[in-house]
Amino acid sequence: MLAWPLVKARAGIQLLNAIDSVAGGTAGARQALSGTRYGPLPVQRLDLWVPDAPAGPKRPVLVFVYGGGWNSGAPQDYRFLGRTFARAGYVVVIPGYRLVPDGVFPHMLEDTAKALAWTRDNVAAYGGDSDRVVIMGQSAGAYNVAMVALERQWLGREGVPDGFVKGVVGLSGPYDFYPFTSDSARAAFGRVAPPQITQPISYVRGDAPPMLLLTGDADTVVKPRNSKALAAALDQAGSNVRLVIVPGANHEDTVVKLAAPFSRDRRVIDPVLTFLAERTAASAPVQAAVR
């Protein structure tokens, strides 16, 4: 296993990409866009990956938002993820977003919503089906996608209607983390009053998009209680939620195990692929019924 301090650094992510390209190869996926603007700010750029196959019916779309404590990361760091899911048949959009010190709340949410608006308007030109979009994030990125899915204002400001997001995958995400105990959380959210407005669990609703919340029981960075608490609240509200806890997995495993050869441990990628297939099927309902 790659140690997370190595993977977390830019050099480590690049090494993970290199390992994936050797162990998994690059066949089956193609980068169609690199550094394309989705907004006017320098960081508002995205990469887009497509299956390397003859054009055919419109393909489902996965928008992936990376982690990094709201203070590190870039779309090009996650080429392995673009390859992994493009090979599985998805058009994959990986947007950048503002990071601390510029990326304090709510800027990371504004950027995520703006990237989804770009996806709605442009993904068809790259073979994607804008009616079958699922969003996924890991760690801080899981926070971003959970918030824009649960609190309607962010997508609403960009003119993205309810029902556009067909599902949400949160990997090792912080959803109920006040009081803030980490330097990264204090830097991103510490000046917000009241602080509860920053918490995804504050916006639970019965008609939220279906969610898969996956975490490891050995995660000491973002404790599994975050996923458990949000899953319980969503279930109580009548929303469609699935909680997966991977025994022995730590915080980093939920992204490392999406790259070859680490994806041979199927306990992360299989639940994700199953959920994506369910949510992007032509017959999938827009949202769970409120009970």
From TrEMBL:
Organism of origin: Novosphingobium aquiterrae
GO molecular function: hydrolase activity
Domain BD-FAE-like residues, every copy: 46-234
InterPro entries: AB_hydrolase_fold, BD-FAE-like_dom, GDXG_lipolytic_enzyme
SUPFAM superfamilies xref list: alpha/beta-Hydrolases
Protein name according to UniProt: Alpha/beta hydrolase
Upper taxonomic lineage: Bacteria, Pseudomonadati, Pseudomonadota, Alphaproteobacteria, Sphingomonadales
Keywords for this protein: Hydrolase
Domain of life, source organism: Bacteria
UniProt-listed Pfam families: BD-FAE (PF20434)
